Amino acid sequence: MSVAFRRDSDEEHKEPKFEIPLPAGPNLVTARGLALIEAKVVELEAAIAAETAEEPREVLRRERRYWNTRRSTAEIAPPPEEGVVGIGSRVRIRLAGKARVIDVVGNDEADPHADRLAFSAPLANALLGAEAGERVDFNGRPEAIEILEVVAIPD
């Protein structure tokens, strides 16, 4: 039999498992965001300890490596200047005639469905540094967003 047709194991033919990609740029977080990262690490460590099968355990270890990296690189963002949009701000805006409230947070804390946007998201990024009463450009439209109010995200 030709060596080309011999197969010793399926392991050599599996797709490689790459690490979970990290968002580019600094890992700026709010205090709440750091607590969420730490809770995720604890949750994954418990899941790894409880898992008996090797393949699912390796998937959990991979995820834990991601969150450990995020925890070790996390920098709590300085509190935003009063009345100025920054990481940790709750911003009430008017966009396309509709009022909306957005929390500007770190990448790992973001939840767009709950209007918690990462500072790197286009909408949140457009708001950074703006103050109440200002209008900012967005999506190629000048003065598309009106900043109605800026406060710190309540604890």
UniProtKB/TrEMBL annotation:
Record key words, sorted:
Kinase, Transferase
GO MF terms here are: DNA binding; kinase activity; RNA polymerase binding
Q: Where is this region: Disordered?
A: 1-22
Q: Domain of life of the organism in this record?
A: Bacteria
Q: Where is the composition biased (Basic and acidic residues)?
A: 1-18
Keyword field contains Transferase:
yes
Q: Which residues form the Transcription elongation factor GreA/GreB C-terminal domain?
A: 82-151
Q: Which GO terms describe its biological process?
A: DNA-templated transcription elongation; regulation of DNA-templated transcription elongation
Annotated InterPro entries: GreA/GreB_C_sf (IPR036953), Tscrpt_elong_fac_GreA/B_C (IPR001437), Tscrpt_elong_fac_GreA/B_fam (IPR023459)
Keyword check for Isomerase, yes or no.
no
Matching PANTHER family, A to Z? TRANSCRIPTION ELONGATION FACTOR GREA, TRANSCRIPTION ELONGATION FACTOR GREB
State the protein's name: Nucleoside-diphosphate kinase
